Amino acid sequence: MSERGSGRATREAIREAAARLFLERGYTRTPVRDIAAAAGVNAALVIRYFGSKEELFLETMRLNIDDEPLLDVPMESFGRRFVEVVLSTGDIRGVYLALVRGSGERRIAERLREVHETALVAPLRARLSGVDADLRARMAAAAVGGLLYSLWVVGDEDLAADREELVARYGSIVQRLVTPQA
């Protein structure tokens, strides 16, 4: 294998190769040797730059929903828009699946919780007010998390058959959860 130019370029090549392979194969089915081969470097460099495969996975599998302006809609239509954004943001599916599949590892399970907090709970909580805003955000995030599990882990094709209907109905569920009780 050839060694790449600068240390920064080598590190980035490894990072890019790892991110692509982790998204395609998951954590357990991605050996360090394959990451190195895809990056065009020696496998020892992967460990030298990142310490371990787990560290590299944790560095590459991050996700946040940019809630401005994607979620900058009137609160009355927030539930539907949130479901729409989660289902249509390209890297959410890959990162979610990679984290779920690797969640048997303690630190990866912690990253899954972090992604849940930053990508689902935080954008919801940022838009809510009231004494139970955090609880409402967590309940809605749990509902969306269940949707993602059903679609992407279980592969419920019947649920996904009519995307517009799914977004409308699930958006309605999320909307009820984020709306304060009267």
UniProtKB/TrEMBL annotation:
<dbReference type="Pfam" id="PF00440">
    <property type="entry name" value="TetR_N"/>
</dbReference>
<dbReference type="InterPro" id="IPR050109">
    <property type="entry name" value="HTH-type_TetR-like_transc_reg"/>
</dbReference>
<dbReference type="InterPro" id="IPR036271">
    <property type="entry name" value="Tet_transcr_reg_TetR-rel_C_sf"/>
</dbReference>
<feature type="domain" description="HTH tetR-type">
    <location>
        <begin position="8"/>
        <end position="68"/>
    </location>
</feature>
<dbReference type="GO" id="GO:0003700">
    <property type="term" value="F:DNA-binding transcription factor activity"/>
</dbReference>
<protein>
    <submittedName>
        <fullName>AcrR family transcriptional regulator</fullName>
    </submittedName>
</protein>
<feature type="DNA-binding region" description="H-T-H motif">
    <location>
        <begin position="31"/>
        <end position="50"/>
    </location>
</feature>
<dbReference type="InterPro" id="IPR001647">
    <property type="entry name" value="HTH_TetR"/>
</dbReference>
<dbReference type="Pfam" id="PF17920">
    <property type="entry name" value="TetR_C_16"/>
</dbReference>
<dbReference type="GO" id="GO:0000976">
    <property type="term" value="F:transcription cis-regulatory region binding"/>
</dbReference>
<dbReference type="InterPro" id="IPR009057">
    <property type="entry name" value="Homeodomain-like_sf"/>
</dbReference>
<dbReference type="InterPro" id="IPR041678">
    <property type="entry name" value="TetR_C_16"/>
</dbReference>
<keyword id="KW-0238">DNA-binding</keyword>
